[in-house]
Structure formats: structure tokens, C-alpha cells
Design goal:
single chain; about 120 residues; mainly beta; seven-stranded mixed β-sheet; about 50% strand; globular
Length: about 120
């Protein structure tokens, strides 16, 4: 079955870094666009970053541009989110999301990993 398993979250001080991973299984990872979203307490889930199926095209929310980097390893079926210069407002549960590169109703989500930025 389809699985997306996030890891790498934790508690970090402002200005610090974390690297999130999302390990995928149960589908052809190399043919899926991958995205990261986040949801802070009391707020709606919001888009963070996306990467196309072969990794050559990325885009970011304005709030993280220049600080976060999304990447993927199609040999390991894993997508990453490198987060630098973290701010308290980056505190949220981070989710990875997979959608196929062709038109489809398929839309897969992981269970999320908590990131807390606090001194």
C-alpha cells in the first residue's frame, strides 16, 4: 500500500537548521510530483515547497524562499526539505504530499512530523 513517512522533525533554536525526509513506498515515486505542506496550531495547512518528478523544477512559498530547499532522490524514493535560518513562525507539523505527473485523483499524504522553533 501507499506510504509516505516523514522524519527529521524536532526542537531547534531560532536560526538553526533541520532536514526533513519523506520516504515513499507503494507507488512509482519517480513519476510523482512531491510537495511539502505545513500546519501551525489554529491555522490552515499551507504550501511550503514543491519539486517535479525528476527534480529539475522547484518552487517555494514566499515565507520560506531563500531559507528552505526541497530535493529528491529517486533512487531512494525519498524527498527532503532542508530548512535553514529557522524562525519561530516556522513551527508547525510538516507533511509531505505526492501527486502523479498525469491527471489523476490520486493524492497521497504522510502523517506529519513536528517542527518546533523556540529558544
Amino acid at each position: 500500500q501507499v506510504q509516505l513517512v516523514e522524519s527529521g522533525g524536532g526542537l531547534v533554536q531560532p536560526g538553526g537548521s533541520l532536514r526533513l525526509s519523506c520516504a515513499a513506498s507503494g507507488f512509482t515515486f519517480s513519476r510523482y510530483f512531491m510537495r511539502w505542506y505545513r500546519q501551525a496550531p489554529g491555522k490552515e495547512r499551507e504550501f511550503v515547497a514543491r519539486i517535479n518528478s525528476f527534480g529539475g523544477i522547484t518552487s517555494y512559498a514566499d515565507s520560506v524562499k531563500g531559507r528552505f530547499t526541497i530535493s529528491r532522490d529517486n533512487t531512494q524514493n525519498t524527498v527532503f526539505l532542508q530548512m535553514n535560518r529557522l524562525k519561530p513562525e516556522d513551527t508547525a507539523v510538516y507533511y509531505c504530499n505526492a501527486v502523479p505527473e498525469w491527471a489523476s485523483s490520486a493524492n497521497y499524504w504522510g502523517q506529519g512530523t513536528q517542527v518546533t522553533v523556540s529558544s
